[in-house]
Amino acid sequence: MPPMLAQTLNRLGAVDDRTNFDRLLALAGGLRAVRQLLRTSETVLDVGELEPEAIREWLRALPIAQSEWVEIAWPADTTAVRMRFDRFAKCFDDLWYPAQDDVVVVAERPGAVQILVLDHEEHFAYGALSPPVYAIPFER
Length: 140
What we know:
Elements: H1 5-11, E1 15-16, H2 21-28, H3 30-40, E2 43-46, H4 52-61, E3 69-74, E4 79-84, H5 85-95, E5 103-109, E6 112-118, E7 123-129, H6 131-134
Antiparallel strand pairs: 1-4, 2-7, 3-4, 3-5, 5-6, 6-7
């Protein structure tokens, strides 16, 4: 988990959603589905050599409305919050530390769930899941 995450989240206006951590993982299809997204998504970005502003531009170009409230989780810490996507995109580098943790962002839409994974190996992956995928029981 990033240092001083609680203070950073508070400063950014995130809403504590820790009680919904399991629901968020269920929406994403569980950690197995999240890991699978990293391997199979056509929308993957290797951020290892990129400057933060280039990463912000990539995040802003995703088909997630900038004003949309998304759920964000740090699976290793069973922590989850709600935040507007534009704030997340602007401050991603305060919320995700390479080689330290994974972050899962979920945007729930009627008939689909959009997922963004920021993994500790410096790869970001985006994908959308349809209801049959995330309706199955999830595994951590």
